[in-house]
From TrEMBL:
Coiled coil (UniProt feature): none
Positions of transmembrane segments: 18-38, 50-73, 85-108, 115-133, 145-165, 177-195, 218-238
Source species: Falsiruegeria mediterranea M17
Pfam short name (any one): LytTR
Gene: rcoM
Keyword set, alphabetical order: Membrane, Transmembrane, Transmembrane helix
GO CC terms: membrane
One annotated GO molecular function: DNA binding
Domain MHYT, first and last residues per copy: 15-202
PANTHER family: DOMAIN SIGNALLING PROTEIN, PUTATIVE (AFU_ORTHOLOGUE AFUA_5G11310)-RELATED (PTHR35152)
Domain HTH LytTR-type per the UniProt entry, residue ranges: 269-373
Gene3D superfamilies (alphabetical): LytTr DNA-binding domain
Protein name as catalogued: CO-responsive transcriptional regulator RcoM
Length: 373
């Protein structure tokens, strides 16, 4: 990173207003796509969550990269310049990996306020890293930065991304995802142009070759292709906002096989920890979640792997007062601190707040209401 020094001769810089506007649209569409892809993952299996998180990382990270280079295509300099292909592609990889790391924290650890803030800060740092690495790939000219520009763009990137993820992951509703999308899109857009406003350019007499060179024309083709992918994904997930969920008849679970003899109240659940078996008292369990052919058992402080499938856990634990609230969840009503209903669905929250909320499906809503009145 080169900082401003007296005596440098700077180039005149302009911007195409149409491409500036397009770059904002790309950032907003990428944010909407990525944040929507990760909605309602708690009710899905681990492989499904991994796939959704991977696609969301590509959408958000690729959107950061595409927005930057759409804006760079609109930058007008009085000299011809190129991009180094290796550095340019590295900048895209950095954005995708840092966003992916943030999403892994959000969807594969206990989601607390500290985790959400950390994820937002990581994404903000990813935007900055992508921007400055991408700028380093310019050939025949060099970017010259000011300390104020670097510090102000850093504060803005991290602050807006924390706001974006704090909103989108505070309550996972369409409204909050839209607000989070606006914060994310404007974070990417404003960080780029704030950094560019305080950046100057000087001409270089020769190419500092690291990898193959990319002209503006070839870069335009790459950006168009990446934007097609992002917009296509947005159309795919757009039904979340444009199409109401179809009305479904009230359904009930199929009859269970004859229940075993009632178990004593101090039933213990066989779980695995550090390669050994432990038995967790049912009274200490907040809820049990399906995980493929197995289950995850949540206590106030820990999560354990259990070999019981959700059907077996349901048969054994409902005799101990547990309630099935979703095809993938059964809860201990003694651990539920609050039940909330939203139209034809609901959710249960727990103390401590570090435990994730549990969704209540439409078919189990009446049972949950009766239990928590």
């Amino acid at each position: 990173m080169v900082l401003h020094c007296p005596g440098m001769e700077f180039l005149n810089v302009g911007h195409n207003p149409w491409l500036v506007a397009v770059s904002l649209v790309v950032a907003l569409v990428a944010g909407a796509t990525g944040l929507t892809l990760t909605k309602d993952l708690s009710s899905k299996s681990v492989p499904q969550r991994k796939l959704a998180v991977s696609l969301a990382a590509i959408a958000l990270g690729g959107g950061i990269w595409s927005m930057h280079f759409v804006a760079m295509l609109g930058m007008q300099l009085p000299i011809l310049f190129y991009y180094d292909a290796a550095i340019t592609l590295t900048s895209a990889l950095i954005a995708i990996l840092m966003v992916g790391f943030a999403l892994v924290l959000l969807h594969f650890t206990t989601r607390s306020k500290a985790v959400i803030v950390s994820a937002g800060a990581i994404v903000g740092a990813g935007i900055l890293a992508m921007h400055y690495v991408g700028m380093a790939g310019m050939q025949l000219c060099r970017a010259v930065y000011t300390p104020f520009g670097v510090l102000s763009s850093s504060a803005l990137a991290i602050g807006l991304c924390i706001l974006a993820f704090g909103t989108a992951y505070g309550v996972r509703s369409n409204r909050n995802i839209i607000i989070g999308t606006l914060c994310f899109g404007f974070a990417v857009f404003s960080v780029h142009f704030l950094a560019m406003e305080t950046t100057n350019f000087v001409a270089l007499p020769e190419i500092r070759e690291f990898g193959p060179l990319i002209s503006n024309e070839v870069m335009a083709i790459g950006v168009i292709l990446s934007s097609f992918v992002i917009f296509g994904a947005f159309l795919w997930v757009g039904s979340t906002y444009l199409m109401p969920a179809p009305a479904r008849p009230e359904i009930t679970d199929p009859p269970l096989a004859p229940a075993p003899d009632p178990l004593p109240h101090d039933t213990r659940i066989p779980c695995e920890r550090d390669g050994g078996k432990v038995f967790i008292p049912a009274a200490d369990v907040a809820f049990v979640r399906a995980d493929g052919h197995y289950t995850q058992v949540y206590t106030d402080t820990e999560r354990h792997f259990c070999v019981w499938p959700i059907t077996e856990a349901t048969k054994r634990l409902t005799s101990n007062g547990f309630i099935k609230v979703h095809r993938s969840y059964i809860v201990n009503p003694n651990k539920v601190s609050r039940f909330e209903r939203a139209k034809d669905k609901g959710r249960c929250t727990f103390e401590p707040a570090s435990l994730p909320p549990v969704p209540v499906s439409r078919s189990h809503l009446k049972e949950a209401q009766d239990a928590f009145q």
